[in-house]
């Protein structure tokens, strides 16, 4: 799967949030880092097709996120920064099955697939638990299960380890590492960023650096020092 960013620009409420971002991404794990407000979440949402660019275009395997939105539906998953917003049904297994039933898979089969996915992530013990009782780390992993069960080719994560302790952050990082799907990961977690194949560093809506993860992390540290 290739993500082709072609001079992607985004203007919101008269403010330019992204300035002509161009990159052709073929790697399996793409990190996106930058200071607060640099445009990371906006870029992630554009790649996932949740918003449309104001100028330029984004092609996923040659399909335009704007013109071919219908064809791309279901191919890309998005894991939100606060995955509690993503949970719609009270019991974990039903929630993980929700996307499948929505797609027309019979409920029994959908729940079976959901339980298998929870099992794969080592979360089967959570299947019958009320979702609102889960810890932050468990919610993050359940949200990931709900996306994975849909078998998207690309998963976009918006700060997946924020608010997680080291153990759960590592579990999420390991789950991302094991994915069959491609991943775009927005993160402030430099250990997670360093584990990616390629990292985009955004600064004030511009692509400040694109390439080696360790170098991207070093450049971010340099930006953090000079930032007011
Ligand atoms: N709908 C909007 N209207 C106006 N400005 C917006 C809108 N959405 C985002 N912005 C602004 O765009 C800039 C980039 O926001 P974005 O959420 O993409 O940054 P980010 O790099 O993900 O930040 P953070 O690390 O704080 O989550 C910010 O200055 C933000 O205030």
TrEMBL record:
It holds the Pfam family ABC_tran. GO terms for molecular function: ATP binding; ATP hydrolysis activity; ATPase-coupled transmembrane transporter activity. It comes from the Bacteria. InterPro entries: AAA+_ATPase (IPR003593), ABC_transporter-like_ATP-bd (IPR003439), ABC_transpr_CbiO/EcfA_su (IPR015856), ECF_ABC_transporter_ATP-bd (IPR050095), P-loop_NTPase (IPR027417). One of its GO terms (cellular component) is ATP-binding cassette (ABC) transporter complex. Its EC number is 3.6.3.-. SUPFAM superfamilies: P-loop containing nucleoside triphosphate hydrolases (SSF52540). Residues 3-226 form the ABC transporter domain. Keywords: ATP-binding, Hydrolase, Nucleotide-binding, Transport. Signal peptide: none annotated. Belongs to the ABC transporter superfamily. This is Biotin transport ATP-binding protein BioM. It comes from Hartmannibacter diazotrophicus. The gene is bioM.
């Amino acid at each position: 799967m290739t993500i082709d960013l072609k001079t992607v620009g985004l203007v919101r409420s008269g403010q330019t949030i992204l300035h002509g971002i161009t990159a052709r991404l073929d790697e399996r794990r793409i990190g996106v880092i930058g200071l607060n407000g640099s445009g990371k979440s906006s870029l992630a949402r554009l790649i996932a097709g949740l918003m449309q660019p104001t100028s330029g275009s984004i092609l996923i395997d040659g399909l335009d996120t704007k013109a071919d939105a219908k064809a791309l539906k279901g191919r890309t998953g998005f894991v939100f920064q606060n995955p509690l917003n993503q949970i719609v049904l009270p019991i974990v297994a039903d929630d993980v099955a929700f996307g499948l039933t929505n797609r027309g898979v019979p409920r029994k089969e959908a729940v079976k697939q959901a339980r298998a996915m929870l099992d794969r992530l080592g979360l089967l013990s959570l299947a019958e638990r009320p979702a609102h009782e889960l810890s932050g780390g468990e919610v993050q992993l359940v949200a990931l299960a709900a996306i994975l069960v849909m078998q998207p080719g690309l998963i976009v994560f918006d700060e997946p380890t924020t608010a997680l302790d080291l153990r759960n952050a590592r579990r999420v990082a390991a789950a991302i590492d094991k994915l069959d799907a491609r991943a775009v990961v927005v993160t402030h977690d430099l250990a997670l960023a360093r584990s990616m194949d390629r990292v985009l560093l955004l600064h004030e809506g511009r692509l400040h650096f694109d390439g080696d993860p360790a170098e991207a992390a070093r450049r971010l540290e340099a930006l953090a020092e000079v930032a007011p």
